[in-house]
Each structure stands twice: as structure tokens, then as C-alpha cells.
Design brief:
- The complex is a heterodimer of chains A (70) and B (268).
- With 70 residues, chain A is an alpha+beta fold.
- Chain A has one domain: Alpha-Beta Plaits.
- Helices cover 14% and strands 24% of the residues of chain A.
- Chain A is built from two helices and four strands; from the N terminus they run E-H-E-E-H-E.
- A two-stranded antiparallel ribbon of chain A has the order 1-4. Chain A has a two-stranded antiparallel sheet with strand order 2-3.
- In chain A, a hairpin with a 5-residue loop joins strand 2 and strand 3.
- The longest helix of chain A is centred in the middle third of the chain and has 5 residues.
- Chain B is an alpha/beta fold.
- Helix content of chain B is 38%, strand content 18%.
- Chain B has an eight-stranded mixed sheet, with helices on both faces. In chain B, strands 5-6 form a two-stranded antiparallel ribbon.
- In chain B, helix 1 crosses helix 7 and helix 5 packs across helix 6.
- Classes of the chains: A alpha+beta (70), B alpha/beta (268).
- The complex binds iron/sulfur cluster (SF4) (3 copies).
- The site of one iron/sulfur cluster (SF4) has 12 residues of chain B, from helix 8.
């Protein structure tokens, strides 16, 4: 029984809470995220996301949530 | 439940600077509580003063934001009066081991069932970058512009020597390990210390040319190694992460319960 690969539904980014630290961007293993011109995290390569959750777990500001299909 | 069900959203965005490790500690701590399935009513957080101590305001449990260095004394009082509750005490390095140093060693010596989190960013952030007993020789701060000559405590060794029965360390880069260690610390019956190396990019980072929060996290990744790894033998400067002590020893509230029974039995 292999572990089922989680499927991404969406990233929810709370723009008001994001402080643009870049932690999620830098440590994403698939380079999915970037900071926009307002220094807020945005999803650039959604299709590359492997739902590892590391962006959500490392964010110091509770500003990014990875929602998967269940 | 989602992790946001455990925070007081009305106080967000929080006051911590961009990239401050303390937000990550809060995030990982809440996941530990969520994983354990402990109800909010069974958790009490007491905190002292400092950037780290703000956690008490943001986490939606029973919380007390108390006096500088005295969070463990308040926690001891709560635990003695209601031993069934889970006490978690998040402290900064200065709060825990400078002004709070005496409370810290004696809480450890008693082995009272409290989970102490030492969020070690090696500086007093809230008051503007003064050095703490964990800054270490050769660092700079507003109180040591020409470099610090004070030796540092090793939180792990100090906790072990003082009698803590669960002692662990990790960093804000290793978020899954923070959650895992906090879970084990909460489940452990006795005084538990989890030291979490955390980044203060605003003061410690800037004063010591350590770069951004991202750079500081990269250095936690590079400069630490699991306890007992071969890498440590080859490169002794590496800081070990993991569990250093995990032992069952008589817990203070349980021992106190026995004293009550003994006194009652004596018939006076
Ligand atoms: S880690 Fe959080 S606060 Fe930092 S840039 Fe990403 S979403 Fe924003
Ligand atoms: S879940 Fe993992 S892969 Fe997807 S954006 Fe976050 S860090 Fe990147
Ligand atoms: S001063 Fe340092 S410890 Fe305090 S909130 Fe800012 S980064 Fe965090």
C-alpha cells in the first residue's frame, strides 16, 4: 500500500498577515512561490507544488495555508 | 481543527518582526497540541516578558502574561493547585536564564511536570538588542559594541545538571522536529526543557552581520546535526539536535500528593 500523493486544492495566502520574509519562497523545494512587488507571497508555479506543507509549517505569520483534496 | 482555531485571530497580524523565529515556534507548538488532541481547556500557558513571551497573548488557551523571569514560578503555582492541567512555559533566553535563571534551575531540580520552551535567539529583542547569557563570546549587541567577552550557558547541559528529566534541542529551521519534541515534552511526566534556536533578524542578525531570516535559517541547517551523529565527531563545532535526556523520575506533584496522604494518615 503506497502512500497516496496528496492533491492540491489551493494555497490560501492571507496578504494582510504576510510580512514578506521570504522564508516560504526560499525553502519551497519546488520553487512554487515568489514575492510580488508589494513583498507578499504569491503562487507562481501552482502545478509544481507537491503539497509538502513546508511553507505552511515554516511561515512565522500563519499567512500561508496549503489546502489539499481529501 | 485547523491551526488557526488555536490562535486569537483578533490580535493578528502579530507584533513580531518579519522573519522572526518566534512565530514559527508558535506555529509548531500549536501543531503539537493539535496532534495530541488535547482540549484547549486543559492547556495553561504562563509567560514572562520579552518578544517570546507575547505567545501568551496569541495562543487561545488559558494564558497568563506574568512578570519578567517569573513565568515558571506562576506555572508552579498553577500546576500545584490543578495538577491535571498541562503547563507550557515559553521563554526567551534572557527571560529563562538571566532574570529567570534561579526559577529555572529550581523548577528543574524539583522535576515538576511543566514543559519549558527556551526560545533562544541569543539577544534581548524587545528592549533593543542587549546581550543575554546565551549570546556567547565574540558576539555583538547594543551592550557590547566591541564584542562580548562573557561565556555562554549551554541550555541543554545546564538543564541536565539542574535535574530536568526531559531535555531536547532543535531550531526553527527544523519545524517538524519542534512539533515532535514539544509533543514528547508535553507527554513526559516531569520537568521538560525544549531549547529552540530561533532567529532575531532585527537585532542579533543585524548586529552580527548574519543576513536575513532566510540566511539565519540556512545557518541553523548547516551548523546543527542530530545527536550522536558521525558528523559531530568530524566537526565538533556542530550543535546537536534531538533528545539528550528522557528519564522517568519521581514527579513533584505526585510526591506532594503522597505527603498529603501521609499527613492525613497521621491523624493530626
Ligand atoms: S513565510 Fe509567511 S510571512 Fe514570510 S513571505 Fe511566506 S507567507 Fe509571507
Ligand atoms: S506545499 Fe511544499 S511544494 Fe507546495 S508551495 Fe508549499 S513548500 Fe512549495
Ligand atoms: S526584535 Fe527580534 S525577537 Fe523581537 S520580534 Fe523582532 S525579530 Fe523577533
Amino acid at each position: 500500500m503506497g502512500k497516496k500523493q496528496p492533491k492540491l486544492r489551493e494555497h490560501i495566502i492571507e496578504r494582510e498577515w504576510c510580512k514578506g520574509c521570504g522564508i516560504c519562497v526560499h525553502f519551497c523545494p519546488k520553487n512554487v512561490l515568489e514575492l510580488d512587488e508589494k513583498e507578499k507571497a504569491v503562487v507562481m508555479r501552482r502545478e509544481d507544488c507537491i503539497c509538502c506543507m513546508m511553507c505552511e509549517l515554516r511561515c512565522p505569520d500563519f499567512a500561508i495555508e496549503v489546502v489539499v483534496e481529501n | 481543527m485547523s491551526v488557526k482555531d488555536y490562535i486569537r485571530e483578533r490580535f493578528f497580524p502579530h507584533i513580531w518582526c518579519a522573519g522572526c523565529g518566534h512565530g514559527t515556534v508558535l506555529n509548531s507548538m500549536l501543531r503539537a497540541i493539535e496532534d495530541l488532541g488535547i482540549s484547549k481547556n486543559e492547556i495553561v500557558i504562563t509567560s514572562g516578558i520579552g518578544c517570546s513571551s507575547r505567545i501568551a497573548g496569541y495562543a487561545d488557551f488559558h494564558t497568563f502574561h506574568t512578570l519578567h523571569g517569573r513565568a515558571l514560578a506562576f506555572a508552579t503555582g498553577v500546576k500545584m493547585s490543578a495538577p491535571e492541567l498541562n503547563l507550557i512555559v515559553p521563554m526567551g533566553d534572557g527571560d529563562a536564564l538571566a532574570i529567570g535563571g534561579n526559577h529555572f534551575i529550581h523548577a528543574a531540580r524539583r522535576n515538576i511536570d511543566i514543559t519549558a520552551l527556551v526560545m533562544n535567539n541569543r539577544i534581548y529583542g524587545m528592549t533593543g538588542g542587549q546581550l543575554s547569557p546565551l549570546s556567547g563570546c565574540g558576539t555583538k549587541g547594543t551592550t557590547a559594541p566591541y564584542t562580548n567577552i562573557d561565556n555562554s550557558f549551554d541550555t541543554v547541559e545546564l538543564s541536565i545538571a539542574a535535574g530536568a528529566s526531559f531535555v531536547a534541542r532543535t531550531t526553527t529551521y527544523h519545524v517538524k522536529q519542534i512539533t515532535d519534541l514539544i509533543k514528547q515534552a508535553i507527554l513526559h511526566e516531569g520537568f521538560s526543557v525544549v531549547e529552540i534556536l530561533s532567529q532575531c533578524p532585527t537585532y542579533f542578525g543585524r548586529k552580527n552581520n548574519l543576513g536575513s531570516a532566510v540566511d539565519m535559517l540556512e545557518s541553523f541547517k548547516k551548523n546543527t546535526t542530530p545527536v550522536g551523529s558521525n558528523a559531530k565527531e568530524k566537526k565538533p563545532a556542530l550543535i546537536e539536535r534531538g533528545i539528550f535526556v528522557q528519564e522517568e523520575r519521581p514527579e513533584y506533584c505526585s510526591e506532594y500528593e503522597k505527603i498529603i496522604e501521609k499527613a492525613m494518615g497521621a491523624g493530626h
